[in-house]
Amino acid sequence: MADFQTIQAGLDEIAVRKDLRVPMRDGVTLAADAYQGVEDKPRPALVALSPYGKELQALALTTPPQRRPSPMWDGCIEAGDIARVVKEDYVHVIGDLRGSGASEGEHIGNYNAGGVSLGQDAYDFIEWVAAQPWCDGNVGMIGISYFGSMQVLAAAERPPSLKAIFVSGGHYDFYETTYHGGVMWFMPRAAREGRGGDSGWAFTDGVKSRMLETYSPEEIKEKVAERLRDPDVAAWPNLVHVLNYPKNHEAWFDIVMNEVDGEWYEERNPVNLARNIDIPVWLQIDQGRGWTMDGTIELFDALKGPKKLDIGPYPPMQSRPFIEEHDKMFRWYEYWIKGVDNGIMDEPAVTVHVEGSREYVTGAQWPPKDVEHRSLYLRPRRGLSFEPELMGAEYAAPDGFYQAPLTVTDKVEILNWSTAPFTEPTEMIGQGAAHLFAEIDQPDTNFIMRMWDEAPNGKRQLITSAYLKASHRELDTERTTEGDPRHPHTRAVPVEPGKIEEYVLRVYPFAATFLPGHRLVVELSNAEPLADEHNALLPPDAFHLPVGRPVTHKIYRDAAHPSRLVLPFTTRGSAEKENR
Does the keyword field hold Ligase (predicted)? Predict the structure, then answer.
């Protein structure tokens, strides 16, 4: 007799096996629920693993999908549409990671970097699922964001029963996920602790800080005191609280305490691990949050097996419960798991939605078209021009702004420069650079740049962004090329106040056509606006740590200091276009 319960989901019946115990090789057991059709037969399985709690994911059966800014939008309901998975004749297996939810064991640090590899646990979990009588031995994976990152960690371990993965909205290089250009991002706090529309981790006593497990109380006290000497950190109430009282903030505490890249982040970097993956991988990401596109493309380039890259349209936040991309996913798994030759591998490897023209461009790699990096120079009277400035600094006086800390003002000062209206469609696809010759009167600041497409009626859409903490200006000269700057972020070097420095910001990947009459507008600040037309689409914790000291900025753009954008203009190539 079947050991499942039958539940009603809409007009369909779904069978569920609750609270399965999945043994790991060290004796720890993980908790899981398995959903399937009521006919008791073997099926392929789609596995979803996270620390967010399997009961939370079950709300996908009863909660209508929500879009931002709905107050019911919960960023952690990411395991997929259970009813749809069952309808497509798969078993949907949702598990709690080690140390979270109903699972045993300890979760030490982010991605359990201080304990048992989450990839190792995923291997054991997948092979256990494949051996069950209700599974036919073929396994794929499902889920976005953290669930997506888990797919990469699992595939890198090469479990024999894992046939393919489909990753949407994943996060990969963990340092680049949490510090954009060296500037701390608050979203990981929300995802872990439950803030601003996220339920957070299913915390237990098994979730521990890797820092607190590694260092003595005396060493921790010294390291916390050093971290609080950063005026940006000391000015932000939540960070002061976390650093003084890390209990119940263990995962966020570890991020705050490690502000530069290095072994802490790199030992299990999914981008590095991707070189071990030889199964088919589909990577999907939407535009509008450039750092997620950047990491997805970097992972795509590192993969060795069959692969697809699918970059979708703005806006950036998928619904919760997550339901998007399922049609593509089931075509992928139909081919690789069910063996149906549906022609998907005859289609181009890379598909990119181009904002503005609303076209899809396809190709064999990123970018899918040939590009030429061309410079747009910052000019007097807030202009952007293909022609460099000829006047010297004595005539082309720098633009400037003074920013007081947000602890004393709620006004964010923003400089902007714009092109003349474009006279013909102008397409850009790729990543770029912003070269800023700047002088500040403090040892550090943030440079936050956002690039907009402004229509003749004044309506704007964000195209991409760039971030750089001034003390992280050092370039990785071996990896940096024209229009593709790289920063090691392994140390912070204070700026000499009053000295003009060249800061090279990485402009995150994007794809956009500026239509006739539209302008390209570039904004520069050292903090983000508290609310605008883009931020309204995001949870309130999608914010970066502002500068905690008053700073005067001078941006030079004269003949000796050619501040400029270096952007990827497409050229005639073999790429195809398709209107959709």
Answer: no
Taking only the tens place, the pLDDT of each residue in 352-392 is 999 999 999 999 999 999 999 999 999 998 999 999 999 99
Cα separation values, 412 from 378, 546, 548, Å: 21, 10, 13
Kindly give the pairing relationship between strand 43-50 and strand 91-96: parallel
SS (H, E, C) 486-510: CCCCCCCCCCCCCCCEEEEEEEEEE
Query: Residue 49: phi, psi to the nearest 5?
Result: -130, 135
219-237 pLDDT per residue, tens: 999 999 999 999 999 999 9
Residue 382: DSSP 8-state: G
Give Cβ neighbours of residue 64 (< 8 Å, ≥ 6 apart).
Answer: none
Give the Cα separation of 195 and 63 in Å (integer). 19
Residue 73 CB burial class (10 angstroms; 0-12, 13-18, ≥19): buried
Neighbour count for residue 152 (Cβ, 10 Å):
26
| Secondary structure (3-state) at 10 | coil
Q: Please give the C-alpha separations between residue 229 and each of 213, 232, 234, 235, in angstroms, as whole numbers.
A: 23, 9, 7, 10
Backbone angles phi, psi at 99, to 5 degrees: 80, -5
Phi/psi-derived region of residue 236, left when phi > 0, alpha when psi is between -120 and 50, beta in every other case: beta
Element (H, E) at 222: helix 217-227
Indicate the helix (H) or strand (E) that contains 376: strand 371-379
Q: Smallest Cα–Cα separation from 283: which of 262, 312, 256, 261? A: 312
In degrees, to the nearest 5, what angle opens at C-alpha 511 toward C-alphas 507 and 513? 115
List the beta bridge partners of residue 446.
469
Q: Give the residue from 167, 249, 138 showing the smallest Cα distance to 200.
A: 249
348's tokens: 């181009």
Residues in the chain: 580
Question: ∠ CA 38-42-44 to the nearest 5 degrees?
Answer: 105
Q: What is the pLDDT of residues 386-438, one digit of tens each?
A: 999 999 988 899 999 999 999 899 899 999 999 999 999 999 999 999 999 99
Residue pLDDT, tens place only, 500-517: 999 999 999 999 999 999
